[in-house]
Structure formats: structure tokens, C-alpha cells
Specification:
By secondary structure, the chain is α/β, with parallel strands linked by helices. The chain has two domains: 128 residues, Dihydrofolate Reductase, subunit A (3-Layer(aba) Sandwich); 78 residues, no CATH class. 24% of the residues lie in helices and 25% in strands. Strand 3, helix 3 and strand 4 form a beta-alpha-beta unit.
């Protein structure tokens, strides 16, 4: 399993080296990026990941955003983390189709909504974002297989997801995740905190491809094994 595992000190790599290590391995390619503590907390005491990440994690975080064609995020995570409009197109996944306040003034075309026909906020989302920016994918739950394909049809083949945990779990269940990028920061915070997965049970095999270290922070690139 680990014959092709690449081990490096992050500080020894320049940006071109790092980009090569994180290059997609197929088209389209959907990767999910998370940070957590050694004891598995994906959020700190303020309820967001900002209080547990660090400059080492941010280097890879910034690289993935720079290289991606689009950013896929659950609407709840956008609210919890107070996302602002990023450089790349932001795709909100929501059963309600409610646009979070921090994105209410987004320029046309910068925010898309992936939602369902039964969403109570569907008409408001179309009025705010434009009908062409609202993808109706299913009746009750967003069809994540269709979402991945729809984004690829727009030319967005390098797809980056930043969660949250429930969306990640749903994506794993749908079989659309190609890779997990997971940073483990050298901290223990105790208490009761959400993990990087949340919701229904999943059992997905991963294969380590890259492991980086700097100042005690570990950054892993894990490939999702094909289902038997």
C-alpha cells in the first residue's frame, strides 16, 4: 500500500515542487481538504477551523485554492466559517437554497447554488444569483454524482471541496471523492468536537500518496480506493 508513498519536509519544497506533488491524477478530480487536531477535532472552541489551523496548513490550503477551478462548500460551513467571496467560483450545496449573508453581495457568476426542487429558498436563490447559477439536482437531497458531472461540463475539472463534515460524508457515500487532503496540527483540545466526517456511516478505504511535515504539523494526501 505504501510503496509509492512520497515523504518530504515541507520546508524543503518550493511552490513548483508542491504543485507537482498535489497534481490531479484524473479528469475530473474532486479533492476534499480538512484540518484537525491530533485528537480528531475539526473545529476549535470558536466553532470554526480557523482557530486550529496554522501557517504550515495555510501554505497547502492556498496552493489547493490557487490550482482549483472551483470551490465546493456546504452552505452551513459557509455560515459557520463566515466565508467571503473567493477568487474562484464558489459552489454552495444546500437543501434549502438559502444564500448565506456573507455572500449576499457576490458579483454575478461568482456563486452557484446546488440544491433540490423542494428547497424553500429556490425562487429567492434564482432571483439573487440568477437562474443559470442555480443547479437543481434532485428532489430532496442533492445528487452529488450529477453535481460533479455538471461542474466538469462547465470546464471545472479540478474541483476542491472544503466540507463541511456532513457534505464530505455524503460525498463519500455517493462515491464522488477522489482524494482527501488532511492536515493534522500538533494540538490536543479535548471536549466534544465534530470530526471531519459526520452523519451516516461510511467505510471507505484510503491509500496514502504524500506525507509532508513541518514544525510538527503533518499534511497527508490520501487517495480514495476504488470500491470493490
Amino acid at each position: 500500500m505504501i510503496d509509492d508513498l512520497i515523504l518530504h519536509r515541507l520546508a524543503d519544497l518550493d511552490d513548483e515542487d508542491l504543485a507537482h506533488l498535489y497534481a490531479p491524477r484524473a479528469t475530473p478530480w474532486l479533492r476534499v481538504n480538512f484540518v484537525s487536531t491530533v485528537d480528531g477535532a475539526a473545529r476549535g472552541s470558536d466553532g470554526s477551523s480557523k482557530s486550529i489551523n496554522n501557517p504550515v496548513d495555510k501554505r497547502v490550503f492556498d496552493l489547493l485554492r490557487l490550482r482549483a477551478d472551483c470551490l465546493v462548500v456546504g452552505a452551513g460551513t459557509v455560515r459557520d466559517e463566515a466565508y467571503q467571496v473567493p477568487r474562484l467560483p464558489l459552489v454552495l450545496v444546500s437543501r434549502t437554497a438559502e444564500v448565506p449573508p456573507s455572500l449576499s453581495e457576490a458579483p454575478p457568476g461568482r456563486v452557484l447554488m446546488a440544491t433540490v426542487a423542494s428547497a424553500p429558498g429556490l425562487s429567492r436563490a434564482r432571483a439573487r444569483l440568477g437562474a443559470e447559477a442555480v443547479l437543481v439536482l434532485g428532489e430532496q437531497d442533492p445528487d452529488l454524482v450529477a453535481l460533479k458531472a455538471a461542474l466538469a461540463d462547465r470546464g471545472w475539472t479540478d474541483q476542491l471541496c472544503e466540507g463541511g463534515p456532513q457534505l464530505f460524508t455524503s460525498m463519500l457515500g455517493a462515491g464522488v471523492v477522489d482524494e482527501l487532503c488532511h492536515t493534522v496540527v500538533p494540538r490536543l483540545i479535548g471536549g466534544s468536537h465534530v470530526r471531519i466526517t459526520d452523519g451516516s456511516e461510511v467505510d471507505v478505504a484510503l491509500r496514502p500518496a504524500v506525507l509532508l511535515e513541518q514544525d510538527g504539523t503533518l499534511l497527508g494526501r490520501w487517495l480514495v480506493e476504488p470500491r470493490p
